Amino acid sequence: MMAHEIFPYAAFVFGAVVGSFLNVCICRMPLNESIVSPPSHCPHCSYQICWYDNIPILSYLLLRGKCRGCGTHISFQYPLVELLNGVLSLFLFIRFGPTLAFATLFLFCSALVVITFIDIEYQIIPDEISLSGIIVGFVLSFFLKGHTWLNSLFGILLGGGSLLLVAYSYQRLTGKEGMGGGDIKLLAMMGAFLGWKAVPFIIFASSLVGSVVGVSIMLFQKKDSKLAIPFGPYLAFGAILYIFYGRPLIRWYLGLSGFGQG
């Protein structure tokens, strides 16, 4: 096997290893616990996890999803996050190769993985990720080919401003808060990394998927429109969809609607 043929496999392994750390962030950040100390341990018996029990995906399978110390079931979230981040890393590497764009978007997608799982469980989006992400995304725009600081700045303003306007309008019309500030800051972060052109696509894609899933859940659970459904995961889905298929889908839509003609 040639050296360059190993790189995609290495990208997957790297993403899965980072995914193991993302699990720590997902579990500890909502509880305001340090993500550095103490070392990884079982939350039930405090058994300190050895390195050979912390190999992404493989250790979960070998341990049959149970803690070596007390035998308590280990959440399937752990291998799922590792696998998901590994696959994202692999696809990003195939798309962008060993470039700064790959490193930037890998960082971005890893942040989205953490945000998604935290928002599903706790319905919060940590400011430590979204606000820091806005700054990091803007700074990196000075170094990325085909992505300017103006594009990033307009993305921040359009991303944060558009959802802020929607949230304000909804609250004025209904007297209730319909969208949290975390979603507003998250879309601003997405604009910082992906530019302003990504924002309309992300809003449309996330709203479409969110509406379909949300209505399906309400019908299945027989609950009304007051059911709280976190919007962060849908925004994350829209952003990742834009990275891989955004431009072809936009061209397809414009051609279908007739705007791409002429």
Description of the molecule:
- With 262 residues, this protein is mainly α.
- The protein is built from 9 helices and no strands.
- It is globular and about 60 Å long.
- The N and C termini lie far apart (48 Å).
- The mean pLDDT is 88.
Note the topology.
Blueprint: H1 3-28, H2 58-62, H3 77-96, H4 100-122, H5 127-140, H6 149-174, H7 181-194, H8 198-221, H9 232-257
Helix pairs in contact: 1-3, 1-4, 3-4, 4-5, 4-9, 5-6, 5-7, 6-7, 7-9, 8-9
Question: What class would the helix/strand composition place it in?
Answer: mainly alpha
Taking the sheet with the most strands, its summary is: none
Taking all residues together, what is the mean pLDDT?
A: 88
Low-confidence stretches: none
Which H/E pattern describes the elements? HHHHHHHHH
Query: How far apart lie the N and C ends?
Result: 48 Å
How many helices? The count is: 9
Estimate the helix proportion, in percent: 55-70%
**Beta strands, count:** 0
Overall domain count: 2
| Proportion of residues in extended strands | under 5%
- Label the overall shape: globular
Task: Give keywords.
single chain; 2 domains; 262 residues; 9 helices; mainly alpha; 68% helix
What's this model, at a glance?
The chain has 262 residues and is mostly helical. 68% of the residues lie in helices and 0% in strands.
